[in-house]
């Protein structure tokens, strides 16, 4: 599982970097041509601009659009979280299946796969639930990157600042905040109890910080707000403060050792455990 997640994140990172090599430095307008511009970039720009007119600044507009996007994806994210929680609960049974079918031959592995899928169905586990939200969010994330970059290169648009952070420039402070928030989100989610996902708990924040120090602060702000929403989701679903009590095994009571009566070769009478006399 961890290899698949690492591969997915690596591909996403490459896609994000390569996506900036096309038209990111060109102005954006309603007349921009191309599928990507017409159906991804411009709708995001228009939505951000609409909320800017309502709220007064592009910073608040990006926050509002981020919340709207997260609310739209919320049912899918909840389904992913519940599937991850079910996967945690199925781990003991899954371990027992691996012990039941240790052989690697085709017949044994087929039986193992059949029983594993039956177990997933019984526990309500969807193995693809963890990847689907990431796959859906990647076009949005790349689209946000293009939208912010092209808005920054459009003379009629001034992104301005949010608090002390110029949205058109990279911000190390905001990048660090985004990385810390990403760590907290993973810490309060299923990664903490899943050894296979623990590597993501340390890899993802570093990756977020790495991108944040070179990308516009407007995109980093999107990550920060998105992670705040994810944190609230984790608190509602996983309830990390309700740590399971560690059940300590009761000490095994040793059976009393039954002493054998001492055999004396001299023929002297010896008392046995029952109180009798053995000659």
Name its key features.
elongated, 279 residues, 8 helices
Chain-wise SSE layout:
Layout: H1 2-19, H2 35-55, H3 58-100, H4 106-123, H5 132-152, E1 161-162, E2 165-166, H6 172-187, H7 198-212, H8 217-237, E3 270-271, E4 277-278
Would you give an account of this structure?
It is a single chain. The chain has 279 residues and is mostly helical. It has a domain at 2-86 and 128-237. The protein has eight helices and four strands; from the N terminus they run H-H-H-H-H-E-E-H-H-H-E-E. It has helices at 2-19, 35-55, 58-100, 106-123, 132-152, 172-187, 198-212, 217-237, and strands spanning 161-162, 165-166, 270-271, 277-278. It has a two-stranded antiparallel ribbon with strand order 1-2. A two-stranded antiparallel ribbon has the order 3-4. Strand 3 and strand 4 form a beta hairpin.
């Amino acid at each position: 599982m961890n290899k698949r997640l690492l591969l997915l994140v690596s591909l996403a990172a490459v896609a994000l970097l390569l996506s900036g090599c096309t038209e990111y430095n060109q102005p954006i307008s309603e007349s921009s041509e191309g599928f990507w511009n017409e159906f991804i970039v411009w709708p995001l720009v228009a939505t951000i601009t609409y909320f800017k007119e309502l709220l007064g600044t592009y910073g608040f507009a990006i926050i509002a659009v981020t919340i709207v996007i997260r609310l739209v994806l919320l049912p899918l994210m909840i389904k992913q979280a519940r599937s991850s929680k079910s996967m945690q609960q199925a781990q003991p049974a899954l371990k027992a299946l691996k012990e039941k079918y240790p052989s690697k031959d085709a017949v044994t592995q087929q039986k193992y796969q059949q029983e594993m899928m039956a177990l997933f169905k019984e526990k309500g586990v969807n193995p693809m639930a963890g990847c689907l939200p990431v796959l859906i969010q990647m076009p949005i994330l790349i689209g946000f990157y293009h939208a912010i970059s092209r808005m920054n290169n459009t003379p009629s648009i001034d992104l301005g600042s949010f608090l002390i952070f110029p949205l058109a420039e990279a911000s190390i402070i905001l990048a660090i905040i985004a990385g810390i928030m990403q760590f907290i989100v993973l810490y309060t989610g299923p990664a903490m109890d899943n050894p296979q996902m623990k590597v993501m708990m340390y890899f993802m924040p570093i990756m977020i910080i790495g991108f944040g120090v070179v990308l516009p602060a407007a995109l980093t702000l999107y990550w920060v707000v998105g992670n705040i929403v994810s944190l609230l989701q984790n608190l509602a679903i996983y309830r990390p403060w309700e740590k399971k009590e560690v059940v300590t095994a009761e000490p095994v009571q040793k059976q009393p050792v039954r002493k054998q009566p001492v055999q004396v070769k001299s023929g002297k009478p010896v008392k046995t455990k029952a109180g009798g006399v053995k000659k």
